[in-house]
Design goal:
By secondary structure, the chain is α/β, with parallel strands linked by helices. The protein has two domains: 160 residues, CbiD-like, CATH 3.30.2110.10; 125 residues, Rossmann fold, CATH 3.40.50. The chain contains eleven helices and 19 strands. The strands form six sheets. Strands 4-5-6-7-11-8 form a six-stranded mixed β-sheet, with helices on one face. It has a five-stranded mixed β-sheet with strand order 16-15-17-18-19. It has a two-stranded antiparallel ribbon with strand order 1-2. Strand 5 and strand 6 form a beta hairpin. Helix 3 runs parallel beside helix 4.
Length: 336
């Protein structure tokens, strides 16, 4: 029996499938809302803040006509998720589902949306509890809400679907996260210049259930591959597959060292600069005057910093290669 993850495209090894004795678990893995591990256990993916926000906003618009308790949202990865909501009279609440990711600090957080019918078009308003940038960054201006482009698309698409379904001319939807400021202060947001709330994010719409089981499964894939690419995030995953189509591509997040240690064949690190450069040199931001690698990347000294990091990497890991890409897939550095 062949089981493929529709989110990553990874075809699970036959022995993993055979180790899973629960048919419902296998169906969940086939759906993309679960991840099959090497032990046969299936871990449930969670839903991102962007997905949760989209569900609350869509439900608020739909509830202008009648109450509802569930809502379907199209995710950026192409899957459709059905979320429980409490929605009536233009007001809706959706709660963040962490899946089996135990360390999700936003798990259970309430997202509250209010919709008002308008003459035409759709307007999304980021309200209290959504963080805002306190300084200009390469992608955001000071005062912008911390809503990623992909999450913003998911939200606006959900509102548009609801407007079309209800037949109204337009809607203005305001989203608030009552505990957003409290939770946001406990995240990395203050370090990247976001204050007053959480960030609304999600490149696929799903949260990976990174725990010990999944980590071991990832390392089993690495150890069994003749040619492997280790990557840190979803964009890295996408570009790694484009750049190295003949390699096994494994998303390891921050576990780069363990990934390198597990590799038995040809190994490449490929991804966006932040995690890779910090892995090579944890003090890379010191004395630069920049708070994040993204900000550092637009400085005139970035190319020299990358070259220095690549030299360090070659010295520490002579049998490995690192390829750093930007958000558009352009190669920033290659240790060759």
């Amino acid at each position: 029996m062949t089981v493929r993850d529709p989110v990553t495209g990874f075809e699970y090894p036959e022995r993993w499938v055979e180790a899973c004795t629960d048919e419902n678990d296998l169906l969940q893995a086939e759906s993309g809302f679960g991840v099959l591990t090497s032990s046969g256990k299936v871990l449930r993916r969670g839903l991102t803040t962007g997905t949760t926000a989209a569900a609350a906003c869509k439900a608020a618009v739909l509830s202008l006509l009648s109450p509802l308790s569930t809502v379907a949202v199209r995710l950026p990865c192409g899957l459709a998720a059905v979320l429980p909501v409490e929605a009536e009279g233009g007001r809706a609440v959706a709660r963040k589902d962490p899946g089996d990711y135990r360390d999700d600090i936003t798990g259970g957080l309430a997202f509250e949306a209010t919709a008002v019918e308008t003459g035409e078009g759709i307007v999304f308003v980021a309200g209290p509890g959504i963080g805002r940038f306190i300084r200009d960054t390469p992608r955001y201006a000071k005062g912008d809400p911390a809503v990623s482009a992909t999450a913003g698309w998911c939200i606006e698409n959900a509102i548009r679907e609801a407007v079309e379904e209800t037949g109204i001319a337009g809607a203005r939807v305001t989203l608030a996260i009552p505990r957003g400021a409290e939770i946001g202060a406990q995240t990395l947001n203050p370090r990247v210049g976001v204050e007053g709330g959480i960030s609304v994010l999600g490149s696929t719409g799903l949260v990976e259930p990174w725990d010990d089981h999944l980590t071991e499964s990832a390392f089993a894939r690495i150890a069994g591959a003749d040619r492997v690419v280790l990557t840190t995030g979803r964009l890295g995953l996408r570009y790694s597959r484009m750049l190295f189509p003949g390699h096994e591509v494994v998303l390891v997040g921050k576990h780069l060292r363990r990934g390198l240690e597990a590799a038995r064949g040809e190994v490449i690190l490929c991804g966006l600069p932040a995690l890779i450069l910090k892995f090579i040199d944890p003090s890379i931001l010191e004395d630069t005057g920049h708070a994040t690698v993204e900000e550092l990347a637009v400085s005139p000294h970035f190319s020299a910093i990358v070259e220095g990091a690549l030299r360090t990497f070659r010295e520490r890991f002579p049998g490995a290669r690192v390829v750093i890409v930007d958000r558009e897939g352009g190669i920033v550095g290659d240790s060759g």
